[in-house]
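Thread: Newbie trying to understand structure tokens

Hi all, I'm a second-year student working on a class project, and my supervisor (Dr. K.) asked me to get a predicted structure for one chain before our next meeting. I've only ever worked with sequences, so writing a 3D structure as a token string is new to me. If someone could post the tokens and maybe explain what I'm looking at, I'd be very grateful. Here's the chain:
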Amino acid sequence: MPPFSRSELLAAAQCERRAWLHLSPRPTAQTATIELPVKGVGGPRPEDIDEVRALARALYPGGVAISQAGTWTDRASRTRAAMAQAVPALFDATFVADDVAVRASILVRDGKGWMVAESKVANTVGLAQELDVAAVGWVAAGAGVAVTGLRLFHLDRDYTRGDGPVDPAQLFVSSEVDPVDFAEDRDRLVRAAAARTEPEVAPGPQCHSPRACPFQDHCIAAPGPYSVQLLPGGGRLHQELLARGIHDVRKIPSEIRMNPTQQHAAWAITEGKEYVGQGLAPALGRLAWPLRFVDFEACNPAVPRWPGSRPFEQIPTQWSIHTLVPGGKLSHAEFLHVDDTDPRPAFARSLVAACGSEGSIIVYGAFEAAIVRQLAARFPEMWGDLDQVHDRIVDFQPILRHHYYHPELRGSFSMKAVLGAACPDLGYGDLAIADGFTAARAWLRMVDARTSREERERLETHLLAYCARDSLAMVKVREALMRRGGITSGG
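---
Reply by user tm_fold:
Sure, no problem. This is what the structure looks like when written as tokens:
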């Protein structure tokens, strides 16, 4: 049996049931191969990981990378041989102890010992990341290494790239990490590996901390049609109700305080009907013509790509505008930056021209308004034009929160959820790109010089289709809800 990995050790530290589920797909003498539903979670792009790793290593010139060929034992032997040489640092040093194998991203010679360090593709770090490097230090110490300290590097959110290359010394912030004894967690991991049946561990805080467990859909039963967990924005409300043994929306006592949105949701869930408040049509009717339904997409590379940008800053790359005039005529305009240059100047100029000087600019959520403010700060010469765009922005989401609910929303007011409830005939299932996370990655791939022309053209088509669908979705939701309120959509 191969040694346990760091991720398996940390899974056991969080929950023995999670460790068992983590191990169970791996065929061993003790466990059968099974397939379990794993909840997908987003993570950093591989390109971001590689770039951050390379920049962190640049902090230690003269460091030697350990080849990852062969077995864990082979890599550990190469690591020992390299440590015996007069090298200032090692990269991907491998250690095995107590049947656990780890790889130290950075190992720095420190007097008579070695400092273990790790870089993270993040603007902030917490307990989960600290445990990552602590686990490496614990195994390295168990393998006989004199570990003098643990250090964690992450990106400085305030670092702004200048006109030249990224400066690694300025890009990173580092902090010391306290050592952790993982002996009990290692024992728990061994028990989980030997167990033939799934351990019984009730869902609890360990499902979310220090990391969200990918097996929540397996361990936590899906809420039923009347579950109080379907109430929107109800973190504290959910806890209060569950603590009192109230699991059914229909059994919520009258003394429980709920905000208006939750009250509307409770009624809709109980009655199995769509709730349309009397104030919905008037709120939509107060919008100023022409109505411009606007959606932005953006990328947020971990390492600042252009001068004047920061780590993970949202850089707008495209917009879509559907314009509705009295009488119901609808037109569409769009912009997509297709070069590997800073998209913000062209984005800002084209947006101002497309938005004109009159009419409500309807968005969904706070993202677009924040981007316009960032652009105004970036381009003070355009401040007046961008400011008038910002002043005309109307967020569609609060209007729906105050006046609309459908049981199929299941607590969510995302545009996809609202569109599915209000306009079930229009969705995103026919699109190759159907969410902003994928769109951001697709844009960065599209402008990459290594991407073929055919692939760039294909991605351009998919990006334009997705952004256009987002702005059209707002048009169709407004149209459907105006009909619900007895008002024609065009006037």
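A couple of things are worth pointing out once you decode it. The radius of gyration is 27 Å. Residues 26-41 have pLDDT under 50 and may be disordered. Feel free to ask follow-ups in this thread.
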